[in-house]
Design a protein that fits this description.
heterodimer, A: BirA Bifunctional Protein, domain 2, seven-stranded mixed sheet, two-stranded antiparallel sheet, 7 helices, 9 strands, 27% strand, B: alpha+beta, Phenylalanyl-tRNA Synthetase, Chain B, domain 3, 18 helices, 22% strand
């Protein structure tokens, strides 16, 4: 009856990241990181999103005075990781997940926040297929949401993947859009000078996972510093 | 459609027709922001429907009219320009209901028969079109960069000062239109117009995009040009427009010959893709014949790419077309071969989480707050609000706010003392750093120093300690194994459902009761609950906060927290509930202190 806690609570986003890490650890993926204040090259150009191209409009960007920007996705970590490995002389296979905070310059409401958490995944090897991507995503969602999780792929567009797919996950009796994914676009490898390889990449919103999994109604509550949310987890 | 190519956002019934709202992404916008593009995709997705447009209209019965001269200054700015004189037109509101209805369905206002015809063909074919009043055009049509200081009054009456970054359509006297974006007043088509010059052109997408952003002028035309529509469609489009004008304006209209300036005609692309390549990418062997059939559905035959499909450049692009039309649901799942040996543990990530674990064990809860502040070093160009115009330089200031909020809510949370921390990126003058901030830090600091075997230095402000976690972690050893067990947490959270919390104030009441020693806490609580009765939905939290023994009696003190989910509770309401509790307790012969 005494609800007084002797142990505190991790923020649900931190717990989710640890859970995601654990699931991907079983598949040999390691964690990679990158800065929140990014440069245009890593966030856009290297990812086949050229300057003055309409694909730049897909993500509303917070530009900082002086030319840098707040990363709009965790995808620049793909580039940073591969650059680092090339510098170290380490060739693929590469397997990483990159959880982290990202920013979008859009009006906030119950489902939109100017800051939220994504988790990127990247697998690079000689011959990587969409079938492997499908298996990996299904493996993850079954572990994270439960064995009865189902996924389906829909055509989509991301400049840094070709083909690109949207990943819907069946949760309860509803299909929910949970991730974007695809095979790494050859231009991405070209931009960092890694040719002769293929890969798959995916990106998911962690906040949305928690909202769906536990029924949190408002994304803004994650960043309100309010223990009425945190202490329920 | 959603599974073959585009997401259909909504379907709306208007009279006997349906309006589809299709989410066309930037890779397909150049050919699919129009009815024919959607129809072609529908035909590709459902070949048995048999929709396939092959209409490639050639205008018949053209007349010899006054010579039309077109001069393109730079073919890189203007890839194609087709003009045609049209004489003896009667400009008036569109007389045909069908065109007004169809335009209204896509959110367009009917203007006059000429403008309506141009818009109709644009929404049909994706080619923006324009008409000038020919009698107001002096000399040749010139497609050139504007001179510094040149001005134009646009169709909506705004004066815009031009510069050499901006491409314009001009005559001998000056600007007639901002190329690909908006027409000008000078050669505007009005009810007095008798003769026209029709334009069907193709401009450099980057140039149009830059200009439209610079002038903050996004139009249906600029949106199409910036997505790189194919120069190949310009000719069909102007013929369609001419036919439509002939139909809706009247038989007395005379059409001149096309003047087609096309300095570097588009070369048709050939992209080959082998069945083995497709199999490697998709992970399923699709027979060559089936691949050929699928590609034929989008008009790709022997690798020849249809002129309007600017996005099909490399074999991977064709793999996407094959994959989506074959059906992603038919792609099997192929297991990843795991090589476990060489996983490197990310040092930062490990220690940040290790510290999270140590702190939660010490009773701290983790909060996350906004990265934005009213002041700082890194300023945002276009912030969401003036108090969010900078990036944070410290965590402590928001931890104070969070501490205050949670201290007020302590009874709801059932906590005597609020202990919180945040780990996150901050942006002081020295650059991007990872910090840790926590309150009530004295004991925690000692424990952390002991476990990490490192001295911890930081900024102390009141009850809050903020440290540069990044530099601390640099001094820590490289982790060899991942020894943070998260599994326990996974198990704990199974079946957990979040409970929304009320945003209305709560009321706290303490009640202490003397009971004989043998009465258990549980038994007493059941009695209290009986007393609360149907108001139990207002009881948000409760806990035993004091207990002591006195002779053959013991005193048990409960804290009850009341809160409504839909309104502010009044003292009177809560007092009534407490009276019922007292009554229930007294009925057992127990004494409320």
């Amino acid at each position: 009856m005494d609800k007084e806690q002797t142990t505190g609570h991790l923020h649900p986003i931190s717990s989710a990241i640890l859970q995601i890490r654990e699931i991907f650890d079983e598949l040999g993926f390691e964690v990679a990181e990158g800065p929140e204040l990014e440069d245009e090259w890593h966030n856009f150009d290297a990812l086949n999103v050229p300057k003055d191209h309409p694909s730049r409009d897909m993500q509303d960007t917070f530009w900082a005075k002086g030319g840098k920007l707040l990363r709009t996705h965790t995808s620049p970590v793909q580039i940073r990781y591969m650059e680092q490995k090339i510098k170290e002389g380490v060739k693929p296979p590469y397997r990483i997940i990159a959880p982290g905070k990202v920013f979008r310059n859009e009006a906030t409401d119950a489902t939109h926040e100017a800051q939220f958490f994504q988790c990127e995944g990247l697998f690079v090897d000689k011959e990587v297929s969409l079938a492997q991507l499908k298996w990996t995503l299904l493996y993850f969602f079954k572990k994270y949401l439960g064995e009865d999780a189902k996924i389906r792929l829909r055509p989509s567009f991301f400049p840094f993947t070709e083909p690109s797919v949207e990943v819907d996950v069946k949760f309860g009796d509803k299909w929910l859009e949970m991730a974007g994914a695809g095979l790494v676009h050859p231009n991405v490898f070209k931009s960092i000078g890694l040719e002769g390889y293929t890969g798959f990449a995916f990106g998911t919103t962690i906040d949305r996972f928690i909202m769906v999994k536990y029924g949190v109604p408002d994304i803004r509550q994650f960043y309100s510093g309010d223990l009425r949310l945190v202490n329920q987890f | 459609m959603t599974f073959a190519v585009f997401e259909i956002e909504s379907v709306e019934k208007i009279e006997n027709d349906f309006v589809l709202d299709v989410k066309v992404l930037p890779d397909r916008a150049h050919y699919a922001l129009c009815h024919r593009g959607i129809a072609r995709e529908l035909a590709a997705a459902k070949p048995d429907l048999g929709i396939l447009d092959t209409r490639n209209l050639q205008m018949s019965g053209v007349c010899k009219l006054k010579l039309l001269k077109i001069k393109i200054e730079n073919p890189a700015d203007c890839r194609r320009y087709i003009g045609r004189r049209v004489e003896n037109v009667k400009v008036q509101p569109s007389q045909q209901d069908w065109i007004k209805k169809l335009l209204a369905a896509v959110g367009q206002r009917s203007i006059n028969n000429i403008v309506d015809a141009g818009n109709f063909v644009m929404f049909d074919m994706n080619q923006p079109l324009h008409a000038f009043d020919a009698d107001k055009v002096k000399g040749a049509i010139q497609i050139r960069r504007a001179k510094k200081g040149e001005k134009i009054i646009t169709l909506d009456g705004k004066e815009i000062v031009l510069d050499p970054e901006i491409l314009i359509i001009a005559d001998n006297e000056g600007p007639l239109a901002i190329a690909g974006i908006k027409g000008g007043k000078k050669a505007e088509v009005t009810s007095a117009t008798k003769n026209l010059i029709l334009e069907s052109a193709n401009f450099n997408p980057t140039l149009i995009r830059k200009t439209s952003q610079k002038l903050n002028l996004q139009t249906d035309a600029s949106k199409r040009f910036e997505n790189d529509i194919s120069p190949a469609i310009a000719e069909t489009a102007i013929n369609e427009l001419s036919e439509l004008i002939a139909e809706i304006v009247g038989p007395e209209t005379k059409f001149g010959e096309l003047v087609n300036e096309y300095p570097k005609p588009l070369k048709l692309k050939v992209v080959q893709v082998s069945p083995d390549f497709v199999a490697q990418k998709l992970g399923i062997q699709i027979p060559e014949k089936e691949i050929r059939n699928i590609l034929a559905r989008i008009g790709v035959v022997n690798g020849a790419i249809p002129a309007e499909r600017m996005n099909l450049q490399i074999p991977e692009d064709l793999v996407e077309e094959i994959g989506r039309l074959y059906g992603y649901e038919k792609i099997p799942e192929k297991k990843l071969v795991v090589t476990k040996a060489e996983i490197v543990i990310n040092k930062n990530f490990y220690w940040e989480n290790r510290i999270r674990q140590i702190l939660t064990k010490l009773g701290f809860s983790e909060v996350m707050t906004s990265s934005f502040r009213p002041k700082g070093n890194i300023e945002i160009e276009k912030p969401l609000a003036s108090d969010k115009a900078f990036l944070r330089t410290e965590l402590a200031d928001q931890l104070v706010v969070s501490l205050k909020l949670n201290t007020l809510n302590a009874p709801l949370l059932g906590l005597k003392k609020i202990k919180i921390f945040e780990i996150g990126k901050v942006f002081p003058k020295s650059g991007e750093e990872t910090h840790l901030a926590l309150n009530d830090f004295t004991e925690a600091k000692i424990v952390l120093e002991k476990i990490l075997d490192e001295k911890i230095n930081g900024q102390v402000r009141g009850d809050i300690l903020e440290i540069n976690l990044g530099t601390l972690i640099e001094r820590l050893p490289v982790p060899k194994t991942w020894d943070l067990t998260q599994r326990l947490n996974l198990e704990k959270q199974k079946g957990l459902t979040f409970k929304s919390f009320s945003l209305y104030p709560f009321i706290v009441r303490d009640i202490a009761i003397f009971v004989p020693t043998e009465v258990t806490t549980e038994k007493l609580w059941i009695t209290i609950e009986e007393g609360i009765g149907k108001e139990k939905n207002l009881l948000t939290n409760h806990y035993l906060f004091d207990e002591y023994q006195k002779a053959n009696k013991k005193s048990l003190a409960f804290r009850l927290v009341f809160q409504a989910s839909d309104r502010t509770l009044t003292d009177t309401e809560v007092n009534k509930v407490m009276e019922k509790v007292t009554a229930a307790v007294s009925k057992n012969g127990w004494q409320v202190r």
